[in-house]
Specification:
It comes from Aurantiacibacter gilvus. By secondary structure, this protein is mostly helical. The protein has 9 helices and no strands. Helix content is about 75%, strand content about 0%. Helix 2 runs antiparallel to helix 7, helix 7 packs across helix 8 and helix 7 packs parallel to helix 9.
């Protein structure tokens, strides 16, 4: 008879997918969500990277530097959380790393120029985050479900962070706004909110 340890070892190595290759299934769901978000904003919005023409690369580097690094850490953490018995504590701690320079730049802005948050496109920014974050979240949930997650709250939280970061990555080229206060209020806070939703609903959505 198969022991529990043997079962966990097999799930750790191969995931819980019953068909296909787990890595391809995992990556396929994440890539599909990314392509869906990118296609959506490309079809509905115009003047991509207009902020680069106006202000140079700095604002775009700050936005994408944050969101892409968060996506990378989320993908690594989701892969680890999908394998029972693996120690994912270090990767989960690394998820806070992209927020560190944001906090530092926000403190610098507040202490020198004051809060920069009055950009006129903020409703469009929030709408884009509200529409695309659940798409990225759903892709991450389906990706993790193709494996064998056991820490469901944590996996849900990371899936939420991934969804928010993916939405920010897709919309950022069309955002002409400046300021770390704007970025914190209209990007970072929605991402954290999506992570909280993932934490709450992770056990329900990821149970297998």
């Amino acid at each position: 008879m198969t022991t529990t340890d043997d079962l966990l070892d097999r799930l750790s190595a191969h995931g819980a997918a019953t068909a296909g290759k787990p890595r391809l299934v995992f990556g396929g769901w994440l890539l599909g969500a990314a392509l869906l978000c990118a296609a959506g904003v490309s079809l509905l919005l115009t003047e991509a990277f207009y902020s680069v023409e106006l202000y140079g690369l700095g604002p775009m580097v700050a936005k994408w530097g944050f969101s892409l690094s968060l996506i990378l850490f989320c993908v690594l953490a989701l892969r680890m959380l999908g394998k029972p018995g693996r120690n994912s504590g270090v990767l989960l701690a690394l998820l806070a790393l992209p927020f560190v320079p944001v906090a530092a730049l926000l403190a610098l802005e507040l202490s020198t120029a004051g809060p920069m948050m009055d950009g006129p496109t903020w409703p469009r920014c929030l709408l884009a985050m509200a529409i695309m974050s659940p798409i990225g979240f759903a892709g991450a949930v389906l990706a993790v479900r193709s494996m064998a997650p056991t820490r469901l709250h944590s996996a849900g939280l990371v899936a939420g962070l991934f969804g928010g970061a993916l939405a920010m990555t897709a919309y950022a080229p069309f955002c002409p706004e400046l300021g770390m206060t704007f970025m914190t209020l209209y990007y970072c806070l929605p991402i954290v909110l999506m992570a909280g939703i993932g934490w709450m609903f992770g056990p329900r959505l990821l149970r297998w």
